[in-house]
Amino acid sequence: MTISSALDDLLVRYQEAYQQAAVPLMTEANGDWRAPIYVGAPTLVDDSIEFVKWQPVRQAQALDFSALMNALEQPFHQDFVEYFSRWFSADLAVSWQQHPFWLLHMHGEEDAERMLSNQAGHVLMKRRLRQSMTLFLGIAEESDDLLITLDNESGAVGLEFVGQNQHETLAANLAEFLAKTTPRVVEFEH
């Protein structure tokens, strides 16, 4: 199974889970972005946070990692590049063996710029700490310091705390990880 087919399948399962639960797909909106995933007008919550309905949208042109890879003088694992070069989407609430995670995605072009900048900071931190290079894919729900990362050399998906090495391998590769994740339905509260 390829990353693209595993990700496509996960997004189908994700949307079906929400449809079966009769819960709309909602995400926090960024009013400064013209995100293609936003559907309709945002709903204001707590006088400051806006939520909006969303749907995944295929990227018309795959995200280009070449400038960042050249600047870092480091190629990124192809699985990672393929994962972030296929869809614009809100972050996905998933479970892996009963553990709740959020798989990160990009709402649109502006969010892609932010993600690339954050990845650069992560890679530079790993270099400074003389640790094996990983690229982050998501976070654990119970702790913002617990990252889901992809080992840039082996392609293994694992867990690491910020500033630490991967301490647990979840799957040998990203396609396997995506295929074994289960969508979680998270209700929008307003």
TrEMBL record:
Keywords: Cell inner membrane, Cell membrane, Membrane. Transmembrane segments: none annotated. Gene3D superfamilies: Syd protein. It comes from Pseudidiomarina atlantica. The keyword Membrane applies. GO terms for cellular component: cytoplasmic side of plasma membrane. It comes from the Bacteria. This is SecY interacting protein Syd.
